[in-house]
Amino acid sequence: SANDAQKGSSGKTIALLLPESKTTRYEAFDKPLFEKKVAELCSDCKVDYYNADQDESKQAQQVDTAVSKGADVIVLDPVNGAGAGGMVESAQKSGAKVVAYDRFIGKADYYLSFDNASVGKLQGEALAKAMGDKGGILMLNGAPSDPNAAQFKKGAHEALDGSGVKILAEYDNPDWSPDNAQKWTSDQLAKFDTSKIKGVYAANDGQAGGVVAALTGAGMKPDALPPITGQDAELAAIQRIVAGQQAMTIYKPIKIEAEKAAELAVSLAKGEKPSDTEDFEGVASYIFDPVVVQKDNVKDTVVKDGFYSVSDICTAQYADACSAAGLK
Amino acid sequence: MADVQDATPGVPADLLDERLIQNEGLAGYAKVFWNRLRGGELGSLPVVVGLIAICVVFYAQDPRFLSSYTLVSMTQFAAPVGIISLGIVLVLLLGEIDLSVGSVSGFSAACMAVFVVDHGHSMFLGMLVGVAVGATIGLVYSLLYLKLGVPSFVFSLAGLLAFQGGLLYVLGDHGTINLPSDSGLVQFAKFGFVPDLLAYVIVAALVLASLGLQLVGRARRAKAGLSTGSLGLLLVRSALLAVGLLWLTSYLNVDRGWSYLWVLFAALVVVLDLLLRKTRWGRHLFAVGGNEEAARRSGIRVGRIYLTVFVGCSTLAAFGGLMSAGLLTSVSQSSGTTDTNLTAIAAAVIGGTSLFGGRGSAYAAMLGIIVLQAIQTGLNIVNVDSSVRFIVTGGVLLLAVAIDSVSRRARTSSGRG
Amino acid sequence: MADVQDATPGVPADLLDERLIQNEGLAGYAKVFWNRLRGGELGSLPVVVGLIAICVVFYAQDPRFLSSYTLVSMTQFAAPVGIISLGIVLVLLLGEIDLSVGSVSGFSAACMAVFVVDHGHSMFLGMLVGVAVGATIGLVYSLLYLKLGVPSFVFSLAGLLAFQGGLLYVLGDHGTINLPSDSGLVQFAKFGFVPDLLAYVIVAALVLASLGLQLVGRARRAKAGLSTGSLGLLLVRSALLAVGLLWLTSYLNVDRGWSYLWVLFAALVVVLDLLLRKTRWGRHLFAVGGNEEAARRSGIRVGRIYLTVFVGCSTLAAFGGLMSAGLLTSVSQSSGTTDTNLTAIAAAVIGGTSLFGGRGSAYAAMLGIIVLQAIQTGLNIVNVDSSVRFIVTGGVLLLAVAIDSVSRRARTSSGRG
Amino acid sequence: MTMVTESPVRESVLSLTGVNKRFGAVQVLTDIHLEVGAGEVVALVGDNGAGKSTLVKIMSGVYQPDGGDIRFDGRSVSVPGPAQAQAMGIATVFQDLALCDNLDVVANLFLGREKLVGGVALDEVAMENEAWRLLRSLSAKIPSVRLPIASLSGGQRQTVAIARALVGDPKVVMLDEPTAALGVAQTAEVLNLVERLKEQGRGVVLISHNMADVQAVADRVVVLRLGRNAAEFKVAEASTEALVAAITGASDNVVAARAARHEGEKNDG
Amino acid sequence: MTMVTESPVRESVLSLTGVNKRFGAVQVLTDIHLEVGAGEVVALVGDNGAGKSTLVKIMSGVYQPDGGDIRFDGRSVSVPGPAQAQAMGIATVFQDLALCDNLDVVANLFLGREKLVGGVALDEVAMENEAWRLLRSLSAKIPSVRLPIASLSGGQRQTVAIARALVGDPKVVMLDEPTAALGVAQTAEVLNLVERLKEQGRGVVLISHNMADVQAVADRVVVLRLGRNAAEFKVAEASTEALVAAITGASDNVVAARAARHEGEKNDG
Ligand SMILES: Nc1ncnc2c1ncn2[C@@H]1O[C@H](COP(=O)(O)OP(=O)(O)OP(=O)(O)O)[C@@H](O)[C@H]1O
Ligand SMILES: Nc1ncnc2c1ncn2[C@@H]1O[C@H](COP(=O)(O)OP(=O)(O)OP(=O)(O)O)[C@@H](O)[C@H]1O
Ligand SMILES: [Mg+2]
Ligand SMILES: [Mg+2]
Fold this sequence. Notes:
The complex is a heteropentamer, with 1 copy of chain A, 2 copies of chain B and 2 copies of chain D. By secondary structure, chain A is of the alpha/beta class. Chain A is 42% helix and 20% strand. Chain A has 13 helices and 12 strands. Chain A has a 7-stranded mixed sheet with strand order 2-1-3-4-5-11-10, sandwiched between helices. A 3-stranded parallel sheet of chain A has the order 7-6-8, with helices on both faces. The longest helix of chain A has 18 residues, at 24-41. The mean pLDDT of chain A is 87. Chain B has one domain (43-193, 256-413): ABC transporter involved in vitamin B12 uptake, BtuC, CATH 1.10.3470. Chain B contains 17 helices and 2 strands. Chain B has helices spanning 2-6, 25-39, 45-61, 68-93, 101-118, 123-148, 152-171, 184-191, 196-223, 231-254, 260-278, 280-290, 292-297, 302-328, 340-350, 362-382, 386-408, and strands at 177-178, 330-331. Chain B has a two-stranded antiparallel ribbon with strand order 1-2. In chain B, helix 9 (196-223) runs antiparallel to helix 10 and helix 15 crosses helix 16. Chain B starts with a helix and ends in a 9-residue tail after the last helix. The relative contact order of chain B is 0.19. Chain D is 35% helix and 26% strand. Chain D has a 6-stranded mixed sheet with strand order 6-9-10-3-11-12, sandwiched between helices. The longest helix of chain D has 16 residues, at 184-199. Chain A binds chain B through residues 1-6, 21, 27, 48-51, 53-58, 60-62, 64-65, 67-69, 79-80, 82-87, 89-90, 144-147, 150, and chain B through 59, 62-70, 73, 77, 80, 164, 168, 175-176, 178, 181, 186, 190, 254, 324, 327-335, 337-339, 376-377, 380-381, 383, 385-387, 389. The complex binds adenosine-5'-triphosphate (ATP) (2 copies) and magnesium ion (MG) (2 copies).
């Protein structure tokens, strides 16, 4: 019967819970990389995968389901890290180990991540640097209903508020939407002449795309855009960087993170206790450094890691820019 | 001339018309049932069939879908949105809509959390505040509707936006507020399960109460000279109910048993169902939903009905939001924003409530939320890519309702006079 | 006896009844207007007043709100969702709903993008594919509705989910696809503005065409012995239209001028309005929306109306999605998912389309989307905290529609026979 | 055309003076006066669109008049809504019946006046019983009182609407074309009913296009034409021809023409 | 009670045999037969809920019969929907009128048969003109044909519904209680209309509860009782009493009782 099936699972089960499906990285990179590494390290380990579609209570239920399927290790990338304590508790009660993946959870057993606040800080610093530490910027943050967006925002402010850069206007973009980013930026151009805008902070690559569309739409030449930031290292963003339309994006070497997570999960499943951790707010952690990708290091980062191939990036539209940037 | 008909001796007063096709005994009922099946008048049965189909498919994929553990957590997680969906049933019965239940649930929960965690008041007081916030919002809605005549779609759309802003405003820089895990709310919503014995006692009491009420009703009808329906059928039905519930209880008791949250939801459903079917208020609500002008001309105070319904809906939304916060042990900027509206409305509609008013029941919310929850849990267990998951969710949803629609097909070509 | 009435010489055949309150000349029309104002029969005027109120408030906050630049970009950005909203008007006129227009727009745009960018086909072919995808979806919807009787709320909810999945599936690992910025679509949607002179020519042609048609209509009525209305009023109205449009054109020409995207949207609105008011199909659509059974009994092929409407709605949604992609120069996983549904439906409703069928117009979509866009642009320019932004959006929306509702108040207590 | 100008003999329960009503560009009622005495049956007749139903709706609180005075039981009153009209003791059978299609016969009959058991729950048994009694008293041919109104025939619905007016204890009963859809037997029952109401001392306003019925039960006939008081007759003094002439506003009307033609045919044949 | 068993003299346009219909637990029609000849007026009478309207709806394609045979113009046909019935040449005035409340009078009159100008655009002028002509021919008192149906009086609506049946060139016209809400003048016009239709050689099915009207225009009277054929009369041979007795199923019915009582009163007074 159903209940027997629940008890009778042999081997080890690792549950991987990711927060959403609207950014590419989770299903295109984290999940396959993680699964592949687990399969490599442990033949009778099984990976159960869940995606919460940005819904906290759905994720809570998924934790429950994972427990019901007898997970030994739960690798949890929380929709909302600050509010995920309850889920962690229920999982731990069942005897499972909880690994906070990519986003911090206070009560987790282990934590692996690129720190959100430091991502924002890196973006801000890179922007200030690209602008020569002066001039006005527009600032587009993530969704006000997304707790992580607040962390990026905080980090970015840390970097920018102390610099010589002046924030002309700031916007929390509902749903991170590129359309809204484009509209908002266009509307700002009614107030600030394009010549006054020396840079744009966009929290992620989607918004950066909207910003580029707005600025070019207002008559700016695509090759004369002010520096624009981004995050996620989306293919479209890398293409824009190569073409000189976007200054930078944050690339998190997901491969390292995912594979480390897989190693950790397998060893936890086998009952081992890893010792090479550092401490982050009381949780045994592995912290990785996010990488700033700019035109000059595309080749050494995303291409080198096999994140994208040169042929992915250099489609017909970007062929010229690619050869100019030495990509081929 | 009235007496011409009364002359037939022994026939109940309501079965005298010679055109009525009579059916007696269990065999007769089987025939009636078969005719209703063909005529598409089966109420919610087809959706139940759809649900069973869903269960069979997922069970075939992974038997753990029907394990005690899964059923327990499925019901527990279904309850908060189910409670919100109950309110939606009310507004839909009037032919109105409330798009803001999600935002209201999040906003109320945030008010509660700030009141309790930041201001250090007791959880009980906090919950009162949360519910009061919901009720106040409903009051404002009904004033907008009754005094200014703003359509419900518009004011609830405005509410959807405004209370999302309110949520952000109340939470302020906090972002997320974690509720103390030893608080009554969290204990109740997340860790509260009915002890095994108590569960059996409750089930027995329920079945006996329902049987008793039906027998009393029968006796009253018989005394008044009206038809009573088969006693056998009544007993068989009660027995089936008893066996079903007892078996389910014992199955859930293998794991943690019925969660208090679900029991609360079920109790709300039963109460609301009785209110709708057995009281003046419920009767008037159906009348206003069916034909507002006729209801007004019958002397019904239509305004009061709207008031109670909008207040009821927002209050239930707030209450559902509190329960959801208890289950999650936290309130955040995203509370109530994601899909809550659509899920709550969809549950009511899938369960068989009409968007045009006058048709539906409290059980619709329960049935609908179970269907949606089953799909979601099933897909969680089966483990697929997001793109596939979205597509399958849509497809399965369609399937569940299509069975219903096809069986209703016979009824469409109607006409009067 | 019919001749008793016809006897009054010189009075047009439709103005014979002595109970009709007659009004002649401009003064008479002013009186009629005043009476309609008091009686709450003003069509969309109150919403326009609401819009003006919004404009005044934002203008007071920051005069740049009404700068040529802002108006140009406001109209340009309003157009794609406006096009989607046109389709929503169609389904709402039938008393149905389509919750999936957002997903359909995103999915179609993604199909187009993959077809063009990945497979290297021409943009024209890509757009054909995108529109065909939309039309096919509409076809499937109408089969579900007509053959299985699934309610539109349910199948479009299923579509909302399924095509969101489809979008993710089609985009695959790409995430975002950038459209070549020299492609016709991007050039048209993003960089296309009507040259100054051409704009004046178009406006003049429009005004003359409208005036000519009205004069021909007048002449035909006069010939048939029916009342014609005041010629003066007609000329004054046309003159006002001409002056208004010409002034607006010159004002927009200070900046980039009318965007082709907006002109396309406006043209679609005009065409759809003519289709709805002046053709058999439109007449039948209103009939089905008002009373489906009566329409069926009049011999109208009701099924065909549903088919054309669902196909039309999905096709417009797909087309809007393509335009939106052109304007943004890219397609991503979030295309069409964000609020697009709610905005498109809200625009139709705010513009005055009833959710219950049989009442509304193509201009409703235009008016509604302008209101929504004005609010958003105003808030973008004024720059407030996101919590305040949500609250203000809700409040302003409520305000715009409340003015309408209050003015309609007089009409509510109706009743027949 | 005989005009009765003196006021009715009996003390009037309901009286209207100078009532006006306009809808958009149409002046529907102009300066109407009407009086109904206790135990009196007043027939309100007039051509289609004369404004009879509008007048009834004004008296029952559905519409608000643009001007004019309404007196009930000697006091000047306003009737802000149907609920208030009912509370005063005015029961109305509307021409469009105003039934809730989604509710069954019993629910419609007792809508707004439900019987309760134990103070809260609806007493379905008592209501069903009473429903059968009421319907049988009107010779209704309704197979089951648990059918929703939507599945009743036109006449069955009208019977339900009439039966509703009998629930409660009204002082004035207004019947707007109550027999339009009724069969011969049911029509006879309704006429009997009107006579019973009159005997019980209630005021009755009866709208009908059937002159025979009007002459059979009414005491007084008030004629409206194009929204104005056109004439008033004592029923004993009114011939069918005179009534028809007052309604159509001409004695050489189509009815007279038809009658004459048929007379001619009969004489020929 | 006289039963006419021989088939009607004229060749029949529309004929039904053995038609059955059931709704849920109610058997509404049992084994009905009916014939309508060209240029013949058949009156269909019966008590409320006898099944008259259901029968008309079956003939006009609104309902599908559970069994039985329909012949039109001598051929056995099925009537899958109203559009097909109209295409065949069956025009129907339904008891509930089936008008679209949100459309104006002109739009309703020509619904499904709009006149076009230039092949695509609606010819509003021609339709409005024709509408006035049709309505005046029925003595309608409608202030403006541009009013939505929702704001018309009951009788005005019914006139619109009847006028609709005159648009086009039907072979059979079915009128389900067409004069229920009409004023005296309009009723006379409709009776004239029925006679005109008959003269034009069309078959007419007329449902009415008014025995005087039935006797004035019908050739044959078919009586339904509780969903069955109860009797059939040639109109010349049918007295009002006989008809009422056939409808109610008893000669000691309430109508007879009323008549007797009034006779008594008159003799007394
Ligand atoms: N859609 C339906 N569902 C259930 N019962 C129905 C339906 N339509 C009609 N009936 C039943 O069929 C019977 C006959 O109805 P029908 O309308 O044909 O009567 P009728 O002869 O036209 O009566 P009337 O003179 O009152 O118009 C009634 O008892 C009615 O309750
Ligand atoms: N809500 C409304 N809006 C506009 N006009 C209306 C409205 N209600 C009634 N009218 C108009 O008022 C006039 C009188 O209508 P009313 O219903 O009172 O007539 P009636 O005397 O009852 O006629 P009938 O005998 O046909 O029932 C009609 O011309 C009608 O068009
Ligand atoms: Mg009337
Ligand atoms: Mg009938």
